Amino acid sequence: MQKTKSVAFGVEKMKLAVFSHCTIDTITIDDSKYEQIGGSACYCGVTAKQFRFDVDLYSKFGPDFHKEYLDESRINLENCGAEAKTTRFEINVTGVNRTLRLENECVPIEYSDSDADCHLVSPVYHEISDNVFRQIKKDSNFLFVDPQGFLRTVDSEKNISLQNRDIDLTDIDTIKVNPEEASCLVNGTHDEMMVALQKKGAEYVLLTNKTQVSLLVKDKVYSITLPNKEVYDSTGIGDIFCSAFCCTMIRERDFLWALCFAGGAAQAALDSKNIGLQKIPSKGAIQTNASYFYNLVKFRDL
After folding, report:
1. Span 218-227, mean pLDDT?
2. Residues near 93 by beta carbon (within 8 Å), at least 6 away in sequence
3. CATH 3.20.20.140 fits domain 14-301
4. Which among 33, 161, 177, 210 is most buried, taking Cβ atoms within 10 Å?
């Protein structure tokens, strides 16, 4: 008999604090260009609203950023305005692969206290200082970290690549990395890198490798495989995944359902074949996929 999960959305009001820059993205797919607001701040925040979370957004954007969509989504913008122009990326999408170019960088995010149930830290490019990160860790009850923006660097043409960096991962609950990001933090095979990240402080380690998603908890690896379908726009998929995991984990306190809801959210977003924030799925689509994945979870001992 298949198992299903009826998550009690809205029964208890909870809050997610997101620390990340809003961006303006020019997304190129084939010969078509789309200018969208985006960044982890937007994708994570709007996804959390699907889980009926209140959202406090700690970000910075300039007068060129159209925040009406966030206002309509009832996302709380905590001192986000800046005189400097918004961070901008040029994104070229080919299937599951993307290349990024930094066109503009806004001012760093300032630290503010939050009474949120969980904090999600997902910088896009150097907007969170080490000092602010330390303060967030002290303030957080549950901390999810996507380190992508800590690891990014640019060349003379402003093309983005990753660089090795030692990040203090003590006092964090969950980290999400792909193999390239993981190898900038630790060494070894995929399994060895997950264990090394766990030893650096993360209780839950998520490794996303295209359609393969693995979660290390203690000495066991749980994994799901997203259906191998055609990918149109992969921008923001990782952010949708992170937010879904974080919200489900906080509400349900069940890492397997959090894994399945995260995978379900990512798959629903891909299935939509929409561009930018339009791909953020409804809670119904997420829940249907999560129940499907729950019956296909594999696990093994390390």
Report:
1. 96
2. 27, 28, 29, 232, 233, 234, 235
3. no
4. 177
